[in-house]
């Protein structure tokens, strides 16, 4: 489990064929000595298994490799990255540690598109930023204003949700403080780039509970199911009031 508080950044050194569909080689000198083979490391929000460098004759304490399965390639942005890309890195949170962000599994739900990342004031040094990201409509029902969302591994708070686009996708806005902008890969991002999205795990359980409530029978079953499906498809069904009413 992670919290979405990025510990450090690393650099993608290379991509190559490996035991999985693809292998990443990452330089992470700040994490040297803090992981062992088989440990989990979140890379841009994707939980990967750290592997030692294949060249056993030379020590690489500041580097690790990670294999990407086909599912990871299809669901995330990692396979599109080029050598030199800056990566957000986080080690798992030890049991009993304070949760400074929110519960992040490292199980990316899909990708979104960065629409804009603009400063709120003209003086760039020390200013807050406003980031707009377009996410698939299938994920929009799991996002609420002031709720948590993970973008490229960063725990962020949703500030605003726009009405659905003609394509069915939804644009959300999040506020970025100066520390987050400087200490993550956000200061390297350009409009149009793909980012990894993980919605709040609590919203997923709430959605599952809502769907389970549609499993009814009787003469009015079709109407009840249709109403439940319509509610689940709406972008505003998941509210703070709904979560409180249902014990979340």
Comma- or semicolon-separated keywords:
six-stranded antiparallel beta barrel, 248 residues, globular, alpha+beta, six-stranded antiparallel sheet
- Strand order in the sheet with the most strands: 4-3-6-1-2-5
Overall pLDDT = 84
Rg, rounded, reads: 20 Å
Strand content range:
25-35%
Sequence stretches where pLDDT stays below 50 over 5 or more residues: none
Q: What is the total tally of β strands?
A: 12
The 3D shape can be described as globular
What does the secondary structure layout of this molecule look like, with pairings?
Layout: E1 8-16, E2 22-27, E3 40-43, E4 46-49, E5 63-68, H1 70-75, E6 86-90, E7 110-119, E8 129-135, H2 137-140, E9 148-151, E10 154-161, E11 170-176, H3 178-183, E12 194-199, H4 201-212, H5 221-233, H6 240-245
Antiparallel strand pairs: 1-2, 1-6, 2-5, 3-4, 3-6, 7-8, 7-12, 8-11, 9-10, 9-12, 10-11
């Amino acid at each position: 489990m992670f919290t979405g508080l990025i510990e450090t950044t690393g650099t993608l050194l290379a991509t190559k064929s490996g035991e999985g569909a693809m292998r990443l080689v990452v330089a992470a000198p700040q994490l040297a000595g803090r992981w062992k083979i088989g440990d989990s490391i979140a890379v841009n929000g994707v939980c990967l298994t750290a592997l030692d460098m294949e060249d056993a004759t030379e020590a690489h304490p500041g580097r690790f490799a990670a294999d990407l399965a086909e599912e990871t390639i299809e669901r995330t942005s990692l396979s599109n990255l080029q050598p030199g890309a800056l990566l957000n890195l986080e080690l798992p949170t030890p049991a009993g540690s304070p949760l400074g962000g929110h519960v992040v599994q490292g199980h990316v739900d899909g990708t979104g598109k960065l629409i804009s990342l603009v400063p709120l004031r003209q003086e760039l040094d020390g200013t807050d930023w406003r980031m707009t990201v377009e996410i698939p409509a299938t994920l929009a029902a799991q996002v609420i204003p002031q709720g948590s969302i993970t973008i490229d591994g960063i725990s962020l708070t949703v500030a605003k949700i726009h009405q659905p686009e003609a394509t069915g996708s939804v644009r959300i806005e999040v506020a970025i403080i100066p520390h987050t902008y400087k200490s993550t890969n956000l200061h390297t991002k350009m409009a149009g780039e793909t980012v990894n999205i993980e919605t709040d795990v609590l919203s997923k359980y709430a959605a599952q509970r809502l769907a389970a409530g549609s499993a009814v029978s009787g003469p009015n079953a079709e109407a009840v199911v249709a109403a439940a499906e319509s509610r689940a498809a709406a972008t505003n069904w998941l509210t703070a009031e709904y979560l409180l009413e249902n014990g979340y």
